[in-house]
What we know:
By secondary structure, chain A is mostly helical. Chain A is 76% helix and 0% strand. Chain A is built from six helices and no strands.
Amino acid sequence: MIISSDDIIIKTIARIFVPFIQLFALYVIMHGHYSPGGGFQGGVILGASLVLLLITHGYEEMRRRVPEGAVILLGSLGLLIYSGIGLTCLLLGGNYLDYSQLSVILHVDPAHARAMGILGIELGVAFAVMAAVCSIFFDISTGGILPEDEK
Amino acid sequence: MTHIMIALSILCILGGFFFFTTATIGLLRFPDFFTRLHATGKGDTLAVFLSLIGLALYEGFSLSALKIVIIAVFMFMAQPTATHAISRAGIRRGIKPWVKGEEK
Amino acid sequence: MNEFFVVVGLGLCLLVFLVLYRVIFGPGVFNRIAAVSAIGTKSLIILLIFGYIYNRVEMFIDISMVYALLNFIGCIAAAKYLEMER
């Protein structure tokens, strides 16, 4: 299990950097059409910011801020967003993930509906990837045994 | 005006390249772990800062230049922290500093 | 100006190969981590210079920012791992 670092420099710098890293990850997710990036890459950066928090502030602090259940819930929510948008397109009469069908319920022309659909898909992918990275790192760093299991 | 900016940016990038070279020579030639880390930690930080400022000057006033300056500020804070963390881990693991007269 | 960027980029590539000596032969894992960190900072500048050579700076800046970030997180994580394992 990872304990908190007892060095004030590393802890302070990590505490300052984590919000900016998450802001940059949101930029990568939202700006994925024009520059390299997208849902997967932004999700990995979001996960990396939480990994930085975990390795500098220790497992207890991390669990207090980002509980294990919330991470699993976020991963499921991401999958739900992805498959929900895809199935909505299917129900509206198009193919799976055919975003232009969303123009019927969004009341915009098909091109805008396509852009919004892609944004929703990327948000879902980012949530799922962030939850997967965090969950894998939690499990590896604790050896698969969580503290609440021992009680 | 643009000629002055380009000349300044060339000067900055050449300065960065010089410090990269000295850091590399230090990393290759110094006798033990802590002195090598000393060379790369300081030399690379200044070199990255100078190179990025030079590239931002060449870019002029735009969003890209602002992003390059953000990278420069990030590296100027992150690189010494990373160096500090590695050297601390080295001390914790019991690496002895080199003293004069020892074998390299 | 383009030729200048090509020359500086080639010089930085040469420096990366010189540092690679420390990665391969450097005694102990700590020397190797220090050298890998140095390679990371050099490749950040090389990426930006590539962007100027190909006239696609907006694209390469994001890549190089991610590279700087992951280099930092990787260094901290490696230091933490080596500090814990006794």
